[in-house]
Amino acid sequence: MIDFLQGIPLFAGLSSSYLQKIANECAINTYASGTILFRENDIGTVFYLVLSGSVKIYNSSNHGDEKILSIMTVGDCFGELSLLDGKPRSASAQVIEDARVLSLSSKSFNVLLRGNIDMALHIIKELSNRLRETNQQVHDLTFMDAKKRVIKNLIKLANEHGARSGNIVRFKINLNYDEISQLAGVEKPLLFQVFNELQTKGILSVSGNEFLLNLLKLKY
């Protein structure tokens, strides 16, 4: 377990004795796709870190509409905000690809943060990155047209989930078209329109949940 924890960025640089404390306090569980880890407005009692698979973080309207905020993959942590400010969950979390997830109780999480400045700084950095990403999303929704938002989100997904070979990036995501349109902040018909245009130009190829993005053709 110690060797495993050392490979996680959040715990990088921690001493073996400190990693042993974490190992003693944490739980590792496997969740099937579709499992809800928590819902918006729940009381937050657990911190999570993805070891494998992926989890979507999203908001829901009173009418059941969803807006995906982010996709958490290997090494990403979430759920810390409620543990830090004591307020209810600001979003929901659902497994979208069978996942192994490390969890820490609120008490253990706070004890570990108080005892290690490097871990605390890593959490602060994560929160800062998310704030910047939220600011960028607001900027994009305000100033960027739908086509550019779709392309930007495709590139982001390719960077996070893809493998590059020359000018081609191949990536696989367990998201349906509704969820991809939510990420881009566009209506689904507009998403289809942009996808069709990109496929006609040979920039994008889609087969099920597998995508091929031609970066050279995208550039020109």
Characterization of this structure:
The protein has two domains: 1-143, Jelly Rolls (Sandwich); 146-217, Orthogonal Bundle (Arc Repressor Mutant, subunit A), CATH 1.10.10.10. Helix content is 45%, strand content 29%. The protein has 220 residues and is an alpha+beta fold. The model has no long low-confidence stretch (mean pLDDT 89). The strands form two sheets. Strands 1, 2, 3, 4, 5 and 6 form a six-stranded antiparallel sheet that branches. The protein contains nine helices and ten strands. A hairpin with a 5-residue loop joins strand 3 and strand 4 (66-72). The relative contact order is 0.13.
SSE arrangement:
Blueprint: H1 2-6, H2 16-25, E1 27-31, E2 36-38, E3 46-60, E4 66-72, E5 77-78, H3 80-85, E6 92-105, H4 106-115, H5 117-143, H6 146-161, E7 162-165, E8 168-172, H7 177-184, H8 188-200, E9 204-207, E10 210-214, H9 215-219
Antiparallel strand pairs: 1-6, 2-6, 3-4, 3-5, 3-6, 7-8, 8-10, 9-10
Helix pairs in contact: 6-7, 6-8, 7-8
Alpha-beta classification: alpha+beta
Shape: globular
The first-level CATH class name of the largest domain: Mainly Beta
Oligomer: single chain
Give the ordered list of helices and strands.
HHEEEEEHEHHHEEHHEEH
Number of domains: 2
Overall helicity: 40-55%
Tell me how many strands there are: 10
User: How would you characterize the largest beta sheet?
Assistant: 6 strands, antiparallel
Q: How does CATH name the architecture of the largest domain?
A: Sandwich
Low-confidence stretches: none
What is the terminal-to-terminal distance? 48 Å
Strand content: 25-35%
As for the CATH topology of the largest domain, it is Jelly Rolls
The CATH homologous superfamily of the largest domain is called Jelly Rolls
User: pLDDT average, as an integer?
Assistant: 89
Q: Supply Rg.
A: 19 Å
Number of helices: 9
Coiled coil: 117-144
Protein name: Crp/Fnr family transcriptional regulator
Domain Cyclic nucleotide-binding: 10-130
GO cellular component, one term: cytosol
